[in-house]
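Recall that a protein's primary structure is simply its ordered list of amino acids. Everything else, from secondary elements to tertiary packing, is in principle encoded there. The following example makes that idea concrete.
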Amino acid sequence: MNELVTAYKLARPDGYDFHTGKTIMYRNESYPHTVKCPLAKPCEFPYETCTKYVLHASENPNDCFVGANIPCSAYKVEGIPVCTEYDKMGFVELNVLEEITDLDKLFGWKYNEAVNPINPLLIRTGKPVESDIELLKQWASVENSVRASVQDSVWASVWDGVLASAKRSVWASLGDSVWDSVWDSVRASVWDSVWAYTGSLFPNITEWKYVNHEYGKYPFQPAVDLWKKGFVPSFDGEIWRLHSGENADIVFELETTTNK
């Protein structure tokens, strides 16, 4: 374990390490520069990953989300690993070669939209038109498979931590006050729309599990289209509704005899 490797490191948006937020600064006015683990003990082996005695980096940038989150900053680094575990490596020191600013390209998914997700309730809209109602009907036909499909499909493509980070960002965009006042009885179905929108942030995935769909076509796009037009669907077991506006007003209802 003595060969120089090139890898990637994620830090907080201000450049500091995720672990303490104040100990190691990866951003610099000039590159390359060297950062060292302040607690490294070269005379004591073996080193182990997931400890405070090493710096962590991964060859696949999406594997860096073990211990990191979004928003973040990203860096290309090189060093000699003193320990490895699965897709994670530990280093006593790292040469920081450059900061990577195009994170959509780096990760292969829509990082910038995940950090700044669309809030459908802030889109000014009126009553739905016929095409919107058709989207609602299409969504109703696939909605019950969205959570398992998005979770397992995204996990297989990148890493579960990426999905969790993106989903938290989308969920938070809707605002706690809306959830507290409106969604108590239909929270699960609104969550499904959150899952659908989150899944759309990963266009690199061409096959989605547990649902029949055309190859390369996102099967939960109807919910995403409604989301981007300012509508959030909900279902209470009997009636589908479309909500719109900052107060999540009900602007349409569709009775159905089909249960989940």
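The chain has two domains: 5-107, 111-255. Residues 111-255 form one domain.
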